[in-house]
Amino acid sequence: MSAPWDARVSGFIVSPDRVDVVWVFLPLLGAFIAHAPVLRFGLLRALARPIDGGSTIHAHRVFGGSKTWRGAIVMTRAVAALTCALVQFAAYSTRLPVEHPARRTLIFGALLGLGAVFGKLPSSFLKRQLESTQVLSDFRSSEFSL
User: Where are the domains of the chain?
Assistant: First the structure.
């Protein structure tokens, strides 16, 4: 039996705490919305420099060529801008777990964007480094296929 505060969403029980988390991360969509046309039309080419500067560890790029300053800047700014825009609507701001004074909204959005962008770097690093190991090549071999 479910608690009285449970809401049914597509057959799943969702508590208000979980819904609030979804609303907090909604501005992350701004990163993809803004970055897609920048990539498609080759905008801001001067910023299309790898974050790792071409550095290598064990003859493999640290983050790879796809993690660029252009992406980091565009995506962070887009998340911050969308956060500032969404907070203007009560339907969004009242669902956040905490109040966001106007002066802190830009900081919150920028930190959310930076977290998303730079949070991907460790997985990118591990992916590049594991490409050189025998374990990964064994895992990719047909011996492990179902």
Answer: 25-131
